[in-house]
Amino acid sequence: MQPIDLLLLKPMQPSVMEALGRRFTLHRADLAPDRDRFYAEIGPRIRAMATGAQAPVDADLLARLPRLEIVASFGVGYDTIDTGAAATRGIIVTNTPDVLTDEVADLALGLLLATVRQIPQADRYLRAGHWPKAPYPLTATLRGRQVGILGLGRIGRAIARRLDSFGVRIAYHGRRRQDDVAYAYHPTLLDLARAVDILMVVAPGGPETDGLVGADILDALGPNGILINVARGSVVDEPALIAALTAGTIHSAGLDVFAREPHVPAELAALDHLVLLPHVGSASIQTRETMGRLVVDNLTSWFSGNGPLTPVPETPWSPPPRGIQA
């Protein structure tokens, strides 16, 4: 069988690159000195694409790849992929759900505790030699808090299960009420922010949630409020957050994601009472390896005639009727 040409937008971890290289003919956009010439030469041959969350896949790029059949995305979020344009062209988009759920939920709880109890700041205090001079100042607490979860999907539910063991009250907001959970549901995000003092953002990115957590939500969260974001930086209005933190409108924030990664606003970095992480929610060796295998498995399954393993809802796939070859 003739090798299948695959476009790789950005390099992935070595094990994934090696596995893809064994199964496909790789064409690396990141190494092309002239992207227009690159796409003009190889675009008509490309049948598959592997990409990550920070590499945009828009309608213009898809139009340069007339034979493209599938886009396999490394990560659970796929808001940088124009799934509408993909669906119009009959292109399947896959992501890597479930395999990173627990890892991100663990990180979210760690980020919450680190923010509330100022764990990184206390570590810096000790290392700077300040402890012999005076004890570290008292911090806020998780006791007596109510946590609101924006987005009670796979990861949101995993976070809620972990929070249950901490004895805090839990509420949530999403597109709809979920009848199989006992947590309090709030029909609007503003209602949720008024009812809680910790807001955990786990909603997907994209146009529908862009800037969803704005000044009004932060005002409602209040001066004891804490914002934790492990979703997408775009969900939070970053200038409004900076203003709220600077003015004391909310108490603090723990952020694993930012609007223009990997660039973090200097105003956020200058605030010592925050906890800022470089988008490491799923960044353990084991989880990233599992995610990479799912990228490869989606592509392999597709070209074996078995269909994609984890297509996103916007580009659904169902097997052809028995007796009709795909």
SSE diagram, text form:
Elements lengths: L3 E5 L5 H10 E5 L6 H8 L3 E7 L6 H5 L6 E5 L8 H6 L3 E3 L6 H16 L2 H9 L18 E5 L3 H11 L4 E5 L10 E2 L3 H7 L2 E4 L13 H7 L4 E4 L8 H10 L4 E4 L10 H4 L5 E2 L8 H19 L23
Give an account of the 3D structure.
This protein is α/β, with parallel strands linked by helices. The protein folds into two domains: 114 residues, Rossmann fold, CATH 3.40.50; 176 residues, NAD(P)-binding Rossmann-like Domain (Rossmann fold). The chain is 34% helix and 16% strand. Strands 8-7-6-9-10-11-12 form a seven-stranded parallel sheet, with helices on both faces. Helix 5 crosses helix 7 and helix 8 packs parallel to helix 9. It is globular, with a radius of gyration of 22 Å. The two termini are 17 Å apart. The model has no long low-confidence stretch (mean pLDDT 95).
| Helix-strand string | EHEHEHEHEHHEHEEHEHEHEHEH
Strand order of the largest sheet: 8-7-6-9-10-11-12
According to CATH, what is the class of the largest domain? Alpha Beta
- What structural class do helix, strand and pairing data support? alpha/beta
Quantity of strands, as a count: 12
Shape: globular
Please mark out the parts with pLDDT under 50 across 5 or more consecutive residues, or reply none: none
The separation of the N and C termini measures: 17 Å
Contiguous helical run count? 12
Nearest-integer average pLDDT? 95
CATH topology of the largest domain: Rossmann fold
Q: Considering the protein shown, what is the CATH homologous superfamily of the largest domain?
A: NAD(P)-binding Rossmann-like Domain
Radius of gyration, in angstroms, nearest whole number: 22 Å
Strand content: 15-25%
CATH architecture of the largest domain: 3-Layer(aba) Sandwich
Please bin the fraction of helical residues: 25-40%
Largest sheet: 7 strands, parallel
Give the total of domains.
Answer: 2
